[in-house]
């Protein structure tokens, strides 16, 4: 990327905040204004930060405020044009832009977007890195009457860069800000996502904030031996590792050493020492864990292996909301084991019209999906000609299994974890969750179907 001293940071704050009701840049999050959060985020990336806030905003102490260019009232592109012109005439190579109302801004944004640009964060197009040399082109674009951010991205050929960490939330309403504020009390246990609710009766989609439990891989090592990688919420991990060792019968209470925690890639490594008498059982269990479970995780020995890259699904779902509702309505009638026992998960493959084509059941949600994928293969059915519907919590491994099977859309009746969302985005999987008789949450929608 370009040298940090040659990148100008630009906070885009020229909106009218009509949906928010008040000036959102002055709204507080964690005791500080959204504007100050945006400035602080860019200051870690850039040598200088400017505020692009139209012509009628009071000056911000210590920050150069730029009026829109080439004229007022052009929305965020008018502010970006002003920043690019300023950068071009003051020796900066590029502009790193961030809107005042998208938080949290990803750390290392400039490195993520790379240089030379232009490049934007996928689904958050105003978080971008723009060569200063684009200033004349953007001004010409605006003078020609083009004002949408999409039109500019297409005109300048900006790359759309995926980001699989905590996604920024567009704070378009006080409810969104309140949800983000409340989410801070949960620490690393949850993320706040701006999702959409699809109403089956009306077909309308509305935005809603939702807390999503964080799910990450935790690689557990005892006495230097990689024992297992478990998917877990990263809170109280010392308790988790100690309890895991006790539950596995590896050691008695009080005989487990201190748990050392280390971040590694997208997860944690937890290390602890067990007494010498635990070693034979530890070695025996470590050798046999590979074939214990269908969840696809327990035999893996590292965080990197647990987060192996996914090859994205390369087909587009051809489904309407009414078909999803139809499949939900008919699924129960196909669940013979579940109806008889009340203790079995089901995985169904549905046509684009919502017909249940195949259904498999098992006490394990992973097993039910594996059975369904196997049935599709053995019967010679194309996995890209329908969607999967699961009676299960939407976890990371179910998303990965669906993507690897080439099924382009997954619908689950329970909520997703943070890692499930990230992996669905990586695999370009259309994902709906909390599917009920009346509605469903649109989690990822890479093809903008809903």
UniProtKB/TrEMBL annotation:
GO CC, alphabetical: cytoplasm
Reactions accelerated catalytically: Mo-molybdopterin + GTP + H(+) = Mo-molybdopterin guanine dinucleotide + diphosphate
A GO BP entry: Mo-molybdopterin cofactor biosynthetic process
Domain MobA-like NTP transferase residue range list: 9-155
Keyword Protein biosynthesis annotated: no
GO molecular function annotation: GTP binding; metal ion binding; molybdenum cofactor guanylyltransferase activity; sulfur carrier activity; sulfurtransferase activity
Cofactors that this protein relies on: Mg(2+)
Family to which the UniProt record says this protein belongs: Belongs to the FdhD family. Belongs to the MobA family.
Record remark on domains: The N-terminal domain determines nucleotide recognition and specific binding, while the C-terminal domain determines the specific binding to the target protein.
The protein's name in its UniProt record: Multifunctional fusion protein
Taxonomic source organism: Qipengyuania pelagi
């Amino acid at each position: 990327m370009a040298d940090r001293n040659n990148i100008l940071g630009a906070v885009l704050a020229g909106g009218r905040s009509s949906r928010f009701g008040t000036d959102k840049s002055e709204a507080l999050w964690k005791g500080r204004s959204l504007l100050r959060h945006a400035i602080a985020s860019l200051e870690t990336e850039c040598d200088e930060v400017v505020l692009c806030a139209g012509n009628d905003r009071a000056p911000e102490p210590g920050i150069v405020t730029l009026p829109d260019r080439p004229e007022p009232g052009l929305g965020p592109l008018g502010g970006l044009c002003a920043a690019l012109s300023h950068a071009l005439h003051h020796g900066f190579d590029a502009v790193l832009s961030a809107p005042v109302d998208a938080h949290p801004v990803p750390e290392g944004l400039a490195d993520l977007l790379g240089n030379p640009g232009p490049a934007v964060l996928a689904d958050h197009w105003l978080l971008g890195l723009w060569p200063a040399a684009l200033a004349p082109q953007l001004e010409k674009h605006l003078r020609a009457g083009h004002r949408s951010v999409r039109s500019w991205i297409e005109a300048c050929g900006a790359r759309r860069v995926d980001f699989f960490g905590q996604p920024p939330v567009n704070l378009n309403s006080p409810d969104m800000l309140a949800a983000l504020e409340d989410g801070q009390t949960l620490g690393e246990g949850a993320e706040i996502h701006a999702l959409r609710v699809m109403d089956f009766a009306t077909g309308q989609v509305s935005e809603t904030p939702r807390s999503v439990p964080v799910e990450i891989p935790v690689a557990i090592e005892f006495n230097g031996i990689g024992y297992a990688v478990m998917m877990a919420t990263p809170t109280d991990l010392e308790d988790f590792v100690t309890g895991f060792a006790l539950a596995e019968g590896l050691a008695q209470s009080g005989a487990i050493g201190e748990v050392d925690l280390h971040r590694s890639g997208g997860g944690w490594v937890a290390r602890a020492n067990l007494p010498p008498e635990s070693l034979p059982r530890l070695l025996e269990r470590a050798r046999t864990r590979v074939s214990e479970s269908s969840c696809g995780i327990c035999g893996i020995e590292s965080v990197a292996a647990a987060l192996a890259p996914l090859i994205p699904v390369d087909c587009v779902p051809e489904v309407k909301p009414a078909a999803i509702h139809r499949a939900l309505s008919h699924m129960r009638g196909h669940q013979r084991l579940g109806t008889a026992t009340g203790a079995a998960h089901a995985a169904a493959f549905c046509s684009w019209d919502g017909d249940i084509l195949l259904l498999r059941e098992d006490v394990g949600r992973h097993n039910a999906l594996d059975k369904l994928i196997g049935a599709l293969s053995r019967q010679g059915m194309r996995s890209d000609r329908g969607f999967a519907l699961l009676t299960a919590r939407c976890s990371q491994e179910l998303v990965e299994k669906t993507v690897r099977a080439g099924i382009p859309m997954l619908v689950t009746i329970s909520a997703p974890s943070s890692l499930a969302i990230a992996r669905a985005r990586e695999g370009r999987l259309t994902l709906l969750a909390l599917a009920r008789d009346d509605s469903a949450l649109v989690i990822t929608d890479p093809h903008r179907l809903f």
